[in-house]
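Q: What structure does this chain adopt?
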Amino acid sequence: MTHPASDREWAARGPRGLALVTGGSGTLGQAICRALFDDGWGLAVGYVSRGRAYAFVESLPDWKGRAVAVPLDLGDRAAVKACARRLLAVNGVIGAVVFNGGVSSVAPFHHSAEAAWRRDVEVSFLGTVLLTEACLPAMLAAGHGRLVAITSEAAKVGDAKHASYSAAKAAQASYLNAVAQRVAGTGVTANSVAPGPIESPLLRGTFATAADADRAVGALLKAIPARRLGASADIAEAVRFFVTSGPSVSGVHLSVGGGITMQE
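A:
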């Protein structure tokens, strides 16, 4: 039996057009999707976890015809191109693309395995490049489009314990800046949001025990001037800002980390 929220139709239309959110079924992805859906966007929720994506789409009010779950592994080049082709064939143009997918390998930079480096680069950087190249021509033809990458504060300052992740996210942000220069004056914009530590199961799940997680969070709170971890809603609001802003707001790498990378 075909699942009600499956990709069999690939049509997702809203008053503002169609927005594709990669990693859309995760905690942060869902927050971004809900913010855009509430603003009138049709949604293509890119997923790796199929069941979770279907359940999320069906939790949205009056989702039929406005939201669809689509398979999209940013580390799979063929899958990225196929997803973009299918969405464009059915919907004509993807008005906004939010690059939220990413993986994070925890290892000192000098112990990081080559496979971890390749996976981080393929998902965060090359996936962004391929999807942008697939979606940008239709945006340029329409004279409007929004590209938003979810990078990291670590992309700005590096992170010895997440070296491959921070390097890949820095490359992603730099690429979006290059795109912003290329599309200036066309009605298409490209921006990045750099989250700091976000309170989530993903953050705490990177530690071996709950006690280790509590100690790490305590240390983070001391390093964050705002004295609080971020929330998914903070990032979703930043994305909403970029997709609704005018064409002059482009080439921005916006920190949303409570001041953790603030320079004195």
